[in-house]
Amino acid sequence: MGVLITGNVGGWESSNPNRNITYIKGAGAATPDSSLITTSSSLRTWTNTTFNANLKHTFDSTGKELTADVDYSVYNNQMIERGMVSRFYKYVDKVETEYNTPLNITSNSPNKYNIFAVKADYIHPLAKAKAKLEFGVKSSWVKSDNDIRFFQNGAVDKGRTNYFIYTENINAAYANFNKEFGKKFNLQAGLRMEHTRSEGKSVTMNESRVRDYVKLFPSVFLTQTINKNNQLTYSYSRRIDRPGYNSLNPFIYFLDPYTYQLGNEYLTPQYTNSFELTHSFKQSFVTSVGYSITNDFMSEVIKNAVNVPEVLEKLKKYNNIQGIDPEKITFATQENIARFENLNVNFSVPIPITKWWNSQNNISVFYNKFIGEVSDQNLNVGQWAYNFYTSQSIKLPKDLSAEVSMWYNSPNVYGIMQGKAQY
User: Fold this and answer.
1) How many other CB atoms are found less than 10 A from the CB of residue 60?
2) Do residues 51 and 118 both lie within one domain?
3) How confident is the model at residue 153 (pLDDT cuts 50, 70, 90)?
4) 225: which residues sit within 8 A by CB, 6+ positions away?
5) Section 125-139 average pLDDT
6) What is the three-state SS of 232-287?
């Protein structure tokens, strides 16, 4: 039995003000007709504490084993944006002229997360059958408390202040079966069941949404040993990706007078079915081919406020947009937009060049395709892309070493976004 307590305290403050310039133009216009310049400085502090109690018990020499863990974590984070000043400019006869009264805004965003989890796992070997059974259960409880406060010219800005509480309880149970078939094959099959109950509550807007669902997640891995140098692995798995807590907050979060972030209380998890074939040569050179289908794919979308009347009404109710052209106001949100298909080929190639120089290289070639509907428009886009990563490790005299690495991501499509090359 063991007990572990860890914690950390820290913080940082920006030494120089951040300065952002946004150029604004009307729909269909070739050049901007106005601009927005925002300056601000930031202060962030955090205090995190984690407690763990664990137990391990071996029943006999056959390898029967029971393990249990209890975890409790508290995370306190605070972000303060000070002196956020927004100034508006119009271009009149190609001359930039300031208009409207500058906004002087300060925000204070304390976030607190409480996470409690308990789990137990049991291993039951079947020596005569060259097999093993594994069973486990886990329950977790999460509470996220986010109280974002805005102040304008020293007074509380009730229109931009936002208080959101999210609670989530996940109960899961799983069973795994592992067996060797002769000297050539090893099979691992498993099934996990999850029951999720969550509630997102906007205290500010007096809105809440409860979700309650049960899902199954199977997985199968079959390993084939061809000879001492070559091995194949065939796999299938199903997984879930849940929305971030704040992604479910229906409040409109202020970024600047023309840009907002909106949570989506109707956002649902996405589910992915993955198939993969992997070849390993001398347990070093690895090649894999994979295909996956993701349903209810979550993607960020950017919309114009005038095209979504209910959002425009929220802006008028909770934010001061007087003097702002509604046609130039945009907001970002997440939606379940599409089915996402991914085909990928991956190569991992380690190259020992000399005794003192090793090279590790990874290449991925993939095709992403998205099919669905965004803002009542059909979406059907796809594109080939590739990633490359290389790392060179060099041993130097006197137990010194050096490492040089580089990476490159080609242009690619992701949902409605078109990404540029990165390196």
Assistant:
1) 7
2) yes
3) confident
4) 183, 184, 185, 186, 231
5) 92
6) EEEEEEEEEECCCHHHHCCCEEEEECCEEEECCCCCCCEEEEEEEEEEEECCCEEE
What pTM was computed for the model?
Answer: 0.81
Distance (Å, whole) CA 164 – CA 250: 9
Cβ contact 385:363 at 8 Å: no
Range with the lowest mean pLDDT among 145-149, 275-279, 302-306, 320-324?
320-324
> How does 121-153 read in b/e, with b if 16+ C-beta sit within 10 Å?
bbbebeeeeeebebebebebebebbbbbbbbbe
pLDDT at position 292, please? 97
Q: How far apart are CA 62 and CA 422, in angstroms?
A: 53
Does pLDDT of 191 surpass 80?
A: yes
215 pLDDT more than 90:
yes
Q: Which residues pair with 394 in a beta bridge?
A: 357, 402
For residue 358, give its domain range: 353-423
d(CA 209, CA 86): 34
- Rounded Cα distance between 140 and 118, Å, is 7
**Residue 159 CA: distances (Å) to CA of 92, 209, 385:** 32, 22, 44
Higher local confidence (pLDDT), 175 or 306: 175
Do 239 and 103 lie in one domain? The reply is yes
Q: Which two tokens stand for residue 226?
A: 């061809």
User: Would the pLDDT of 88 be above 80?
Assistant: no
**Residue 143 and residue 246 share a domain:** yes
- Residue 89's pLDDT is 65
What's the rounded Cα separation, in Å, for the pair 120 and 173? 10
